[in-house]
Amino acid sequence: MTKRQNQEERSRHTQARVIQATIECILENGIRATSTVDIARQAGVSRGALVHHYPSKTLLMQSALEDLLSREVESVRIMANGIKEGALDFDSLLKALHEHFKGDLYMVTLEYLTNARTDPNLMKVLAPLGIKFNTSLEYIWEQLVASAEHTSHQNRVALNATLCMMRGMGAQSIWRDDPELYCDMLLFWKETLMKLGFSTTDSERGRTA
Predict the structure, then answer these.
(1) For residues 182 and 173, is the Cβ–Cβ distance under 8 A?
(2) What integer pLDDT is reported at residue 181 of this predicted model?
(3) Which of 40, 67, 146, 202 is most buried (most C-beta within 10 Å)?
(4) What pLDDT does residue 42 have?
(5) How distant is the alpha carbon of residue 133 from its chain centre?
(6) Is the pTM of this model over 0.85?
(7) Alpha-carbon torsion 7, 23, 109, 99, what sign?
């Protein structure tokens, strides 16, 4: 490995540590209370090294958001592979989405959503990446529930209604820890969707007809 390659590898490693530290600090303290000094300390690098890679807090926050949402898209890719391998069905997808929207990455995303409302620079980063995430999920949803009974628009509405419910449950979990209630809500929503004909197999649709 050449000297240049070594430098590039060290640079990538430092950037990854800084981005991960940024996400950890946001999860613990929120965006507004997180400083570059905090992040440098969490990453175990000097503030000079941090500023070398990310000259401003705005750029660092944008880079961390892009990394965060890229991870979410990757999680969708894993779900898609699960479908191909027969390991993911309709019920499993709903449970996976519920776990996703109550996890740490979603809690950090909530911080970004709140701040993006009044920060146009964050919104410019958030909007296209959020659309990419939703589009990836729409592709998976179509793979699972596509049938002659529903149009693509109806499939899209059903998915986005599901996502809005999951996001709401995730937000509510911040102040109300009630796993039994959320389990019942998931079951209610699954049965509601199945009654509307959204399911992975014709046999399941027939049982709810």
Answers:
(1) yes
(2) 93
(3) 40
(4) 96
(5) 7
(6) no
(7) positive
pLDDT confidence of residue 5: 60
User: What gap in Å lies between CA 89 and CA 199, rounded to an integer?
Assistant: 9
Q: Which residue has the tokens 């929207």?
A: 101
Q: pLDDT confidence of 205, banded at 50, 70, 90?
A: very low
Scanning the chain, the segments in alpha helix (DSSP H) are 3-29, 36-43, 47-53, 57-84, 90-100, 104-116, 120-145, 152-172, 179-195, 202-207
Which residue bears the tokens 């050449």?
2
Single-letter code of the amino acid located at 84? K
Q: How many Å apart are CA 184 and CA 178, to the nearest integer?
A: 10
Give the Cβ contact number of residue 14 at 10 Å. 17
Residue whose structure tokens are 């599901």: 162
Q: Which pair of tokens denotes residue 2?
A: 């050449």
Question: Identity (one letter) of the amino acid at 160?
Answer: N
Predicted pLDDT at 203? 41
Per residue, the 3-state secondary structure of 99-140, as one string, reads: HHCCCHHHHHHHHHHHHHCCCHHHHHHHHHHHHHHHHHHHHH
